[in-house]
Amino acid sequence: MKWIVFDGPVDAIWIEDMNSVLDDSMLLCLGNGERIKLNLSMRIIIECEDLFHASLATVSRAGIIWVPEETVGWKV
Predict the structure, then answer these.
(1) Where are the domains of the chain?
(2) Are 75 and 35 in contact (CB under 8 A)?
(3) Degrees to nearest 5, angle at CA 33 with 29 and 35
(4) How many CA atoms lie within 13 A of 70 on its CB side?
(5) What CA–CA distance (Å, rounded) separates 76 from 51?
(6) pLDDT tens digits for 23-43?
(7) Is the pTM of this model over 0.70?
(8) Is the dihedral of CA 63, 60, 2, 74 positive or negative?
(9) Per-residue pLDDT tens over the stretch 40-70
């Protein structure tokens, strides 16, 4: 398995561009016009604070796990 991890704030433009990679085509379209076809052994994780800028189409393609801040915390 290969994992691609996106971590940080969700930008309104790039999250919508992620729809093509999250659907059955699994095609990642980059801003420079390059297209990368993901294979079945690749997975994507988007770790973000919220999906405020995401459309319902993006949210419907995502499996979402919410963990309260007080449960995780930053201290070990």
Answers:
(1) 2-65
(2) no
(3) 40
(4) 0
(5) 27
(6) 788 888 777 888 888 888 988
(7) no
(8) negative
(9) 898 888 777 777 777 787 777 777 777 777 7
